[in-house]
Amino acid sequence: MLTRVLKSVDLYLQNHPGPHYAVFDADGTLWSNDVGENFFHYQIENCNLPALRGINAWDHYIQLKKKHPPTAYLWLAQICSGFTLETVLSWAQAAAHHTPPQVFPQQKKLIEELLQRNINLFVVSASVEWAVTGALEVAGFTQMHAIGVKTKIDGGMISDQQEGEITWREGKAKAFLQVSHNHAPILCCGNTLGDQHLLEMAKACAIAVQSQKADSEHKSLYDDEQGLLRLARQHGWMEMDLSSSTP
User: Fold this and answer.
1) In the chain, which ranges are continuous DSSP H helix?
2) Domain assignment present for 69
3) Starting at the edge strand that comes first in sequence, how are the strands of the sheet with 187-190 ordered?
4) pLDDT per residue over 94-112, tens digit each?
5) CA distances from 59 to 52, 55, 65, 72, 139 (A)
6) In a domain, 246, yes or no
7) I need a surface site. Which of 48, 52, 174, 227 has the fewest CB within 10 A?
8) Domain that includes residue 184, residue range
9) CATH number at residue 220
10) What is the number of domains present in the chain?
């Protein structure tokens, strides 16, 4: 699989000048766990956030997510309002140390190869950007850049005002193109239908990941992944089965 991917990438590099980009989804694509929700659990237990006082924070998030996922994802950034970015990033690193990202070995090797080719690497996630940044640092992916849900920062202080796109579904592709100044990526890799718009941008290699087995306890995630795999077969995208990997 790796050889096939790199052959497509190298062929593209030979014929097209840079800059070059590759984009990965985070949860279920780079690693098996949900770093955004792990960060939220850490905040509930350790950070004494004023926005969470007097409510069942996890329940509130789940109810928001059922009604309108973008609202829920933005709220997870908004609860950091009033703290410095430096503080929140330190929490994110602490959360990732507490529950380390379970990186797929195949993806780690692919990323190493892409870096050797001087390709700019981004992770675009519907999670809070600061949570993904902390997870990438703890996982050793210090040369990868996170794009996620975030709020505006004024004088180093986080506000409750949305900044940029909500990186969910088509918002992922829009947010990346804003950062890359409309340079489409060479390679895109994702595991659910929410990553469809990312994979549609790939110039050389689109990869649909399967992280869940048929008997997985996360049936809805398995079904979503199967939906992307069906789409991959229609478009002739590559498929990567990580469901048997042991990070």
Assistant:
1) 2-15, 35-46, 57-67, 69-78, 85-98, 105-116, 129-139, 170-179, 196-199, 219-235
2) yes
3) 144-149, 120-128, 21-24, 187-190, 205-210, 238-241
4) 999 999 999 999 999 999 9
5) 11, 8, 10, 11, 29
6) no
7) 48
8) 2-241
9) 3.40.50.1000
10) 1
